[in-house]
Amino acid sequence: MKLINNLIIQIIPFLPKFFVRIVASPYIAGISNNEMLKNVQKLNDKGYKVAIDILGEHVETENEASEVTNRYISIYDEITKRNLSANISIKLTHIGQDLGIHIVRNNLTRLIQAAEKNNNFLRLDMENVPYTSETIKLYKEMFEDYDQIGIVIQAYLHRSLDDIKSLSNEKFNVRICKGIYVEDPELVFNDYNDIRQNFIQLVKEAINNGSYVGIATHDEFLIDNLYAWLLQNNIPKDQFEFQVLHGVPMKKKLKKLMNEGNTVRVYLPFGDNWYDYSVRRLKENPKMAGYIIKNLFLSIFRIK
Ligand SMILES: Cc1cc2nc3c(=O)[nH]c(=O)nc-3n(C[C@H](O)[C@H](O)[C@H](O)COP(=O)(O)OP(=O)(O)OC[C@H]3O[C@@H](n4cnc5c(N)ncnc54)[C@H](O)[C@@H]3O)c2cc1C
User: What is the DSSP letter of 96?
Assistant: First the structure.
């Protein structure tokens, strides 16, 4: 499978754009705000909450960073206007983290003010290791002014347990995921099972410290294992939620979780940067190519 994944990665840049779009389409909620908002409504109607993400990262000018921030601010207003059950999840490099701390801090402050005005929540996605410490630092700064802000901790990083221990308290809201970037092998758990075990430990540590946890995974072993632990320990259902990426097949698992009174949130990326995002993601993580081919086969043969 590794060989096939790598082969796909080599040929992806030479495939016609429309083909890449078809392959990537299950993951992306359209290009325009309107398309995205309709998808949020559809998901809400089915009982899901949503985390909205404008595709893109690493902007190169202050102007771009400011425009992305403005676009997010207008989305907060739309969420309120349409009474949608959705929050926003951003990448700090999309609002200027590469351009200097004062630029990203300024845009982040504007976003926090918009979240507060709309009584909504802001999540900071976690990017690769060069950004980890600064993301945590900015999170802490913003938390002083408005506590409806959350962060992401990646289970593949060795440092994450210390981060969770130092950050978690009753007001801490954390998404725990495995981590998508290709990192220096010294900094991460390289074994699949070690990542799983760390994921479990991180969730338990945060929950035991009273924090709110977004369990962000499609790994049924993790979902089942953690859900059993949460139930056994009578953890209130308003202390955790399950999170998935839009378009990832989960059979009937999510419906079942919702029927049992749990919150399930769908991470919904959209926007005109879909191509770069799809190609970059494929290159960064060969595993994604395998998922996409699998999905393509499923849709061709209409297998559910
Ligand atoms: C809501 C959410 C937010 C995230 N935010 C971040 C973030 O801020 N920073 C970060 O580094 N990472 C983020 N991720 C990505 C995450 O780190 C993982 O890379 C990704 O979720 C795949 O890991 P997994 O836990 O699903 O386990 P895996 O072991 O990779 O997957 C478990 C099973 O799920 C299926 N699957 C997983 N992903 C896909 C897919 N894309 N398409 C089709 N099938 C799939 C496969 O069948 C696989 O066997 C986020 C993930 C989610 C769900």
Answer: T
Q: How many helices (H) and strands (E) does the chain have?
A: 12, 8
User: In terms of Cα–Cα distance, which of 7, 3, 9, 2 is closest to 284?
Assistant: 9
**What separation in Å is there between the alpha carbon of 172 and the centre of ligand 1?**
22
Greater model confidence, 281 or 272: 272
Nearest 5°: the CA angle 16, 283, 75 is 80
pTM (whole model) above 0.85:
yes
Ligand 1 pocket test, candidate residues 1, 218, 285, most atoms within 8 A of CB = 218
More confident residue, 10 or 219: 219
Phi, psi of 130 (to 5 degrees): -60, -20
Pocket test residue of 52, 53, 124, 180 for ligand 1, highest count of atoms within 8 A of CB: 180
- 252 CA distance to ligand 1 middle (Å): 17
Per residue in 120-148, pLDDT (tens digit) is: 999 999 999 999 999 999 999 999 999 99
Q: Under DSSP, is residue 264 helix (H, G, I), strand (E, B) or coil?
A: strand
Domain architecture of the chain: domains with CATH: 29-270 (3.20.20.220)
Q: Is the CB of 154 under 6 A from ligand 1?
A: yes
